[in-house]
Design a protein that fits this description.
It is built from seven helices and 15 strands. By secondary structure, it is α/β, with parallel strands linked by helices.
Length: 228
Amino acid sequence: MLVIADGRMPDIAKINLSQIAEPLWIAPQPAVYESIAAHPDIFFCSTKAGLVTAPGLPAHYLTKLQNNKGTIIKGSLSVGSKYPQTAIYNALAFDNLLIHNLKYTAPEIRNQYAEEQLIHVNQAYTRCNLIALTDHYFITSDIGVFTTLRDKSKEVLLIDPQQIILPGHQHGFFGGCCGIFEKQLVICGHIDFLTKNNGLQAFAEKAGFSIKSLYYGKLFDVGSLLFV
Protein backbone atom coordinates (compact mmCIF):
# COMPACT_ATOMS: atom_id res chain seq x y z
CA MET A 1 0.00 0.00 0.00
CA LEU A 2 1.09 3.57 -0.71
CA VAL A 3 0.70 6.54 1.57
CA ILE A 4 0.83 10.05 0.10
CA ALA A 5 2.51 12.34 2.61
CA ASP A 6 4.25 15.68 3.02
CA GLY A 7 7.98 15.14 2.61
CA ARG A 8 8.63 17.89 5.17
CA MET A 9 7.06 16.08 8.13
CA PRO A 10 9.31 15.43 11.16
CA ASP A 11 12.03 12.87 10.42
CA ILE A 12 10.98 10.44 13.15
CA ALA A 13 7.43 10.50 11.78
CA LYS A 14 8.74 9.76 8.29
CA ILE A 15 10.68 6.75 9.56
CA ASN A 16 7.70 5.33 11.44
CA LEU A 17 5.27 6.01 8.59
CA SER A 18 7.61 4.13 6.22
CA GLN A 19 7.17 1.04 8.39
CA ILE A 20 3.40 1.07 7.74
CA ALA A 21 3.25 1.73 4.00
CA GLU A 22 5.40 2.79 1.08
CA PRO A 23 5.50 6.61 1.08
CA LEU A 24 5.01 8.88 -1.89
CA TRP A 25 6.71 11.96 -0.47
CA ILE A 26 5.28 15.20 -1.84
CA ALA A 27 7.70 18.06 -2.38
CA PRO A 28 6.50 21.70 -2.23
CA GLN A 29 4.57 22.62 -5.37
CA PRO A 30 4.81 26.16 -6.77
CA ALA A 31 1.07 26.58 -7.34
CA VAL A 32 0.19 27.32 -3.70
CA TYR A 33 1.61 29.11 -0.68
CA GLU A 34 4.48 27.63 1.30
CA SER A 35 2.74 26.25 4.37
CA ILE A 36 0.47 23.93 2.35
CA ALA A 37 2.67 23.49 -0.74
CA ALA A 38 3.40 19.81 0.00
CA HIS A 39 0.07 18.91 1.61
CA PRO A 40 -1.51 15.88 -0.10
CA ASP A 41 -5.07 17.00 0.61
CA ILE A 42 -4.53 20.11 -1.53
CA PHE A 43 -3.74 18.04 -4.64
CA PHE A 44 -5.49 14.70 -4.13
CA CYS A 45 -8.92 13.49 -3.07
CA SER A 46 -9.65 9.83 -2.45
CA THR A 47 -13.18 9.04 -3.69
CA LYS A 48 -15.31 5.94 -4.18
CA ALA A 49 -14.30 5.79 -7.87
CA GLY A 50 -10.58 6.36 -7.33
CA LEU A 51 -7.99 9.00 -6.55
CA VAL A 52 -8.75 12.39 -8.08
CA THR A 53 -5.55 14.32 -8.80
CA ALA A 54 -5.01 17.99 -9.54
CA PRO A 55 -3.41 18.79 -12.91
CA GLY A 56 0.19 19.95 -13.11
CA LEU A 57 1.73 17.49 -10.65
CA PRO A 58 5.12 15.96 -11.47
CA ALA A 59 4.79 12.99 -13.82
CA HIS A 60 6.69 10.62 -11.52
CA TYR A 61 3.99 11.04 -8.83
CA LEU A 62 1.32 9.80 -11.23
CA THR A 63 3.56 7.00 -12.49
CA LYS A 64 4.07 5.71 -8.96
CA LEU A 65 0.35 5.92 -8.26
CA GLN A 66 -0.50 4.09 -11.49
CA ASN A 67 2.04 1.39 -10.64
CA ASN A 68 0.11 0.97 -7.40
CA LYS A 69 -2.75 -0.27 -9.64
CA GLY A 70 -5.29 2.16 -8.21
CA THR A 71 -7.72 4.15 -10.35
CA ILE A 72 -6.43 7.64 -11.14
CA ILE A 73 -8.93 10.33 -12.17
CA LYS A 74 -7.29 13.47 -13.51
CA GLY A 75 -8.96 16.67 -12.38
CA SER A 76 -9.66 19.46 -14.86
CA LEU A 77 -9.30 22.45 -12.51
CA SER A 78 -5.87 23.71 -11.53
CA VAL A 79 -5.13 24.53 -7.91
CA GLY A 80 -4.69 28.28 -7.47
CA SER A 81 -2.51 30.34 -5.19
CA LYS A 82 -5.32 31.70 -3.00
CA TYR A 83 -8.35 30.40 -1.17
CA PRO A 84 -10.79 29.03 -2.34
CA GLN A 85 -8.79 27.88 -5.40
CA THR A 86 -6.44 26.13 -2.97
CA ALA A 87 -9.34 24.06 -1.63
CA ILE A 88 -11.10 22.61 -4.67
CA TYR A 89 -9.76 19.08 -4.02
CA ASN A 90 -9.89 19.39 -0.21
CA ALA A 91 -13.13 17.45 0.16
CA LEU A 92 -13.93 14.54 2.47
CA ALA A 93 -15.28 11.68 0.36
CA PHE A 94 -16.35 8.50 2.10
CA ASP A 95 -18.18 5.64 0.36
CA ASN A 96 -21.52 7.21 -0.55
CA LEU A 97 -20.98 10.53 1.18
CA LEU A 98 -19.26 13.76 0.08
CA ILE A 99 -18.65 16.61 2.54
CA HIS A 100 -17.29 19.92 1.27
CA ASN A 101 -18.11 23.52 0.49
CA LEU A 102 -19.96 22.48 -2.64
CA LYS A 103 -19.53 25.88 -4.30
CA TYR A 104 -15.89 25.02 -4.91
CA THR A 105 -15.67 21.22 -5.30
CA ALA A 106 -13.83 19.96 -8.38
CA PRO A 107 -16.41 18.47 -10.78
CA GLU A 108 -14.55 15.15 -11.00
CA ILE A 109 -15.26 14.74 -7.28
CA ARG A 110 -18.77 16.13 -7.03
CA ASN A 111 -20.15 14.37 -10.11
CA GLN A 112 -19.63 10.97 -8.49
CA TYR A 113 -22.27 11.64 -5.84
CA ALA A 114 -26.04 12.02 -5.98
CA GLU A 115 -27.70 15.02 -4.35
CA GLU A 116 -28.78 13.02 -1.32
CA GLN A 117 -25.16 11.98 -0.73
CA LEU A 118 -23.89 15.58 -0.50
CA ILE A 119 -23.34 17.54 2.71
CA HIS A 120 -22.45 21.20 2.30
CA VAL A 121 -20.24 22.92 4.87
CA ASN A 122 -18.88 26.45 4.80
CA GLN A 123 -15.32 25.31 5.51
CA ALA A 124 -13.77 24.57 2.09
CA TYR A 125 -10.62 23.20 3.74
CA THR A 126 -12.84 20.31 4.74
CA ARG A 127 -10.35 17.43 4.67
CA CYS A 128 -7.85 19.56 6.63
CA ASN A 129 -10.46 19.85 9.35
CA LEU A 130 -12.22 16.49 9.19
CA ILE A 131 -11.46 12.78 9.37
CA ALA A 132 -14.03 10.03 8.90
CA LEU A 133 -13.64 6.85 10.92
CA THR A 134 -16.83 5.46 9.40
CA ASP A 135 -19.78 7.04 7.63
CA HIS A 136 -21.22 7.70 11.09
CA TYR A 137 -18.21 8.62 13.26
CA PHE A 138 -16.25 11.80 12.51
CA ILE A 139 -13.59 13.94 14.18
CA THR A 140 -13.23 17.62 13.29
CA SER A 141 -11.51 20.79 14.43
CA ASP A 142 -14.11 23.12 12.84
CA ILE A 143 -17.15 24.15 14.85
CA GLY A 144 -19.25 24.73 11.72
CA VAL A 145 -18.48 21.25 10.38
CA PHE A 146 -19.17 19.82 13.83
CA THR A 147 -22.59 21.49 13.99
CA THR A 148 -23.58 20.48 10.46
CA LEU A 149 -22.69 16.82 10.93
CA ARG A 150 -24.28 16.67 14.37
CA ASP A 151 -27.47 18.06 12.82
CA LYS A 152 -27.27 15.20 10.32
CA SER A 153 -27.37 12.77 13.29
CA LYS A 154 -23.69 11.83 12.97
CA GLU A 155 -21.45 11.06 15.94
CA VAL A 156 -18.90 13.89 15.90
CA LEU A 157 -15.97 14.74 18.18
CA LEU A 158 -14.67 18.31 18.24
CA ILE A 159 -10.91 18.88 18.78
CA ASP A 160 -9.46 22.30 19.67
CA PRO A 161 -7.12 23.20 16.75
CA GLN A 162 -5.09 25.65 18.85
CA GLN A 163 -3.00 22.68 20.04
CA ILE A 164 -1.83 21.70 16.53
CA ILE A 165 1.34 22.91 14.77
CA LEU A 166 1.32 24.31 11.23
CA PRO A 167 4.42 26.40 10.46
CA GLY A 168 3.55 29.88 9.29
CA HIS A 169 0.16 29.88 11.03
CA GLN A 170 -1.16 30.24 14.56
CA HIS A 171 -2.29 26.63 14.45
CA GLY A 172 -3.12 23.75 12.16
CA PHE A 173 -6.16 21.45 11.93
CA PHE A 174 -6.87 17.98 13.26
CA GLY A 175 -7.78 16.28 10.00
CA GLY A 176 -4.48 17.38 8.51
CA CYS A 177 -2.62 15.36 11.17
CA CYS A 178 -4.36 12.10 10.35
CA GLY A 179 -4.98 9.21 8.05
CA ILE A 180 -6.83 5.91 8.18
CA PHE A 181 -4.92 2.65 7.79
CA GLU A 182 -7.07 -0.46 8.16
CA LYS A 183 -8.73 0.07 11.58
CA GLN A 184 -6.14 2.52 12.87
CA LEU A 185 -6.32 6.29 13.17
CA VAL A 186 -2.72 7.22 12.32
CA ILE A 187 -1.67 10.57 13.80
CA CYS A 188 1.41 12.69 13.19
CA GLY A 189 2.00 13.35 16.87
CA HIS A 190 0.71 11.93 20.14
CA ILE A 191 -2.61 12.54 21.85
CA ASP A 192 -0.83 13.06 25.18
CA PHE A 193 -0.11 16.52 23.79
CA LEU A 194 -3.80 17.22 23.16
CA THR A 195 -4.65 18.62 26.56
CA LYS A 196 -8.23 19.16 25.37
CA ASN A 197 -8.91 15.95 23.49
CA ASN A 198 -12.55 15.47 24.56
CA GLY A 199 -12.07 11.74 25.04
CA LEU A 200 -10.47 11.03 21.65
CA GLN A 201 -9.20 7.58 22.65
CA ALA A 202 -12.62 6.45 23.86
CA PHE A 203 -14.35 7.92 20.80
CA ALA A 204 -12.01 6.06 18.43
CA GLU A 205 -12.51 2.81 20.32
CA LYS A 206 -16.28 3.25 20.20
CA ALA A 207 -16.00 3.43 16.42
CA GLY A 208 -13.84 0.29 16.40
CA PHE A 209 -10.48 2.00 15.86
CA SER A 210 -7.16 2.10 17.65
CA ILE A 211 -4.80 5.08 17.56
CA LYS A 212 -1.27 4.87 16.17
CA SER A 213 1.06 7.79 16.85
CA LEU A 214 3.97 8.42 14.48
CA TYR A 215 6.05 10.05 17.22
CA TYR A 216 5.80 11.30 20.78
CA GLY A 217 5.29 15.04 20.47
CA LYS A 218 2.83 17.77 19.54
CA LEU A 219 0.44 17.11 16.69
CA PHE A 220 1.73 18.36 13.35
CA ASP A 221 -0.59 19.30 10.48
CA VAL A 222 0.94 17.61 7.42
CA GLY A 223 -2.02 18.00 5.08
CA SER A 224 -3.42 14.54 5.81
CA LEU A 225 -1.97 11.06 5.37
CA LEU A 226 -3.64 9.54 2.31
CA PHE A 227 -3.38 5.74 2.26
CA VAL A 228 -4.19 4.47 -1.24
